[in-house]
Amino acid sequence: MSLLLLPQPSTTLSPVTVSALAARIPFATVTPPRQRTFTAKATLSISLLDTAPNAIPPKKVLVPIGLGTEEMEAVIMIHVLRRAGANVTVASVEPQLQVEAAGGTKLVADTDISTCSDEIFDLVALPGGMPGSARLRDCEVLRKITSKQADENRLYGAICAAPAVTLLPWGLLKRKKITCHPAFFDSLPTFWAVKSNLQVSKGLTTSPGPGTTYQFALSLAEQLFGESVAREVAELLLMRTDDDNGTKKEFNKVEWSIAHHAPSVLIPIAHGSEEIEVVTVVDILRRAKANVIVASVEKSLEILASQGTKIVADILIKDAQESAHDLIILPGGTAGAQRLSKSRILKKLLKEQSSAGRIYGAICSSLAILHKQGLLKDKRATAHPSVLDKVNEEAINGAKVVIDGNLITSEGLATVTDFALAIVSKLFGNGRAKSVAKGLVFEYPG
Hints:
single chain; alpha/beta; Rossmann fold; 2 domains; seven-stranded mixed β-sheet; 19 strands; 32% helix
């Protein structure tokens, strides 16, 4: 069940697969309403249950979060499992639904954990992070839910610190092969501990860190829905095979010189922005000690991302124009990119960024924003395959990341970790990038 060999990324699926996935995916596309206001608590779903009374009920998944939960792990799990077709409930173990994750990202849960106590889940998946794993451990309701899950032979999983910090004290690792983050590995029972990126043992799936979360989440998707669905999701995520591991290409190399201060990085977000891309860039750059500011182009700080994750920005975009930023990075997501492109303030900031020779970048579908503003002239770039054909500039295929002078671009989704680490390398040096990658348990090719 390890999905070690994945097919070449594809931009098209068979009609049968598209139809099947559309029927299963509850957050396949989030299209914000046309009204002047937007309520992030609203959710959109596509379900056969609405039209076919005899349809198979969707698989139900619980992802609990708490103060200090590792945001990359939580968000990647949520995203991958929703794409696979699971009905994912994000539940807070805190008194409030808004939770500040380990890297400072503010996530909003769907519900309080207490509302889940009588639910039956096909999978309970615990993200790691500290003190997030300890907060999950200390939640009695979650302990009972997860213990019942194990007792009744239903699937459960944990990543990073959670196997050692959460499941071990609960007694849920007995006679199972497990792995976890290297920092907590010595806490595991010696005979059953395995140093690997993925361990599946008698209904329990474990993995060591943020850098292995895609593999972890895809294994869970495979156990729930089968190998073919997991492979389709891997293609949608633009995951590569081991034999096609193109990384970054750089043209017109310049030094990204930043004065003696922590670089200021602006990440604009909107309803429909791609949550994996937002959270991964924010988390990794903050690990590297950059000053990252998440700015909403909406009227509210809270946005509903492409697969239904609720993210709370630090500021509104109007407050971001009060100072210059060393970098501006645009996350993708088709609907999100469209909404970002309509922000007059963001357009102004991007033009000023380019004119001043400061750094800017785009991930996935947001390359179209730079193209529309004429900010790709004589530049080489990459983007999601569906976008590359629509820009006239010299597109670079086969690279996860392309750097051209002060411009950096990426295909998106599963390539965004490489993208963020490439930024760290340019700003702080390759040593810092390797150090951050090690903490992520990510094999850094640089």
